[in-house]
Amino acid sequence: MKLLSIAVPCYNSEAYMENCIRSLLVGGDEVEILIVDDGSKDRTAEIADRLEAQHPGVIRAIHQPNKGHGGAVNTGIENATGLYFKVVDSDDKVRAGAYKSILDVLRNFSGDEEPLDLLISNFVYNKEDQNRHSVMEYRHCLPVGRVFSWDEANRFPIGKYILMHSVIFRTQMLRESGLKLPEHTFYVDNIYVFNPLPYVQRMYYLDVDFYYYFIGREDQSVHEDVMIKRLDQQARVNRIMIDHFTDPSCQEMIGDRRHLRQYMFNYLEIITTVTSVLALRSGTPEHLQLRDETWEYLRGKDEALYKKMRRRILGRAMNVNRRLPRMIVISAYKAAQRIFNFS
Predict the structure, then answer these.
(1) 3-class DSSP state for residue 137?
(2) At 41, is the secondary structure helix, strand, or coil?
(3) Tens of pLDDT along 259-287?
(4) Closest C-alpha among 156, 137, 121, 129 to residue 343
């Protein structure tokens, strides 16, 4: 069994995928790199097969009809042989020194009777159109350099969350959680780092800058104009997260872990805020209706949860239609973009 499986979803990635793969090869034979060619129409499949031939036993090329990013991640989980599992997008890369530290930690826990469920590390936002970057770190939110549980986690401030770039899950735990991402849907990374959380018992935070996340291309899914055009998909992800959090089995698994419950509530709140603020940015009747439908969906699932979220500052702000409050909300959103390098 490999120590770590890394899935690299690829769709028409010929221009940059080799840079990503080269950064992952530093892990050596302990790492399995699964290149998931998601029905690409360029030379991605050819490059994947060549890399597999050049690095047998380390790289596996998997070809499938197009299923979207979620479908490619699902395929990676299904085919992984590693004890741990990570997703690295084909236009990103990892830092070699931090990579080796990550593997050292995973190796140290690989034989434990009580396994590590989640390893968290930092990631770096790199803005393509600006000569600067920012680091998403968690040293003020999580204990550093030791195993801990949710009860020992501190409160996360607004704007700081555990994202896909930060996490390495235990593979079997992911499978036991029943995680299945929707196909042909953008923004499923939020589901990936949300739905499995009730299954996480033992965590470890390594304070190293491991993952380099490149943003700023105009065609990128996180570009604001693109997100507005795909607001229906953002809202779909939002509803799936509502479904999961309000499911009685999820609530039972969370149990009395109040820090976990609060973290998941806050994450769901910010995702609902993103859906709402993009609708406000658009301002079209169709998108404003989609915002209203999302909130009504939450109300239909859990009236108490709806009221709690609706009464809070973000909930009140996201449900206004008067011009002045909307302008305040949009100004705050732009400020967040500058602070956190959202695109």
Answers:
(1) coil
(2) coil
(3) 999 999 999 998 998 888 888 888 899 99
(4) 129
Torsion from C-alpha of 293, 278, 339, 193, nearest 10 degrees: 50
Query: Could you report the per-residue pLDDT of 138-169, keeping only the tens digit for each?
Result: 999 999 999 999 999 998 887 789 999 999 99
Q: Which CATH superfamily is domain 4-215 in?
A: Spore Coat Polysaccharide Biosynthesis Protein SpsA; Chain A (3.90.550.10)
Q: Does residue 166 contact residue 155 with C-beta atoms inside 8 Å? A: no
Residue written as token pair 């801990």: 148
What does the DSSP 8-state code read for residue 13? -
Distance CA 121, CA 133 (A): 17
Q: Which residues pair with 211 in a beta bridge?
A: 94, 123
Six-digit token string for 307: 């009221």
Q: CA 21, CA 24: separation in Å to the nearest integer?
A: 5
Task: Answer whether 13's CB lies under 8 Å from 91's CB.
Answer: yes
CA atoms within 13 A on the CB side of 202: 13
**Side chain identity, residue 38:** D
User: What is the model's pTM?
Assistant: 0.92
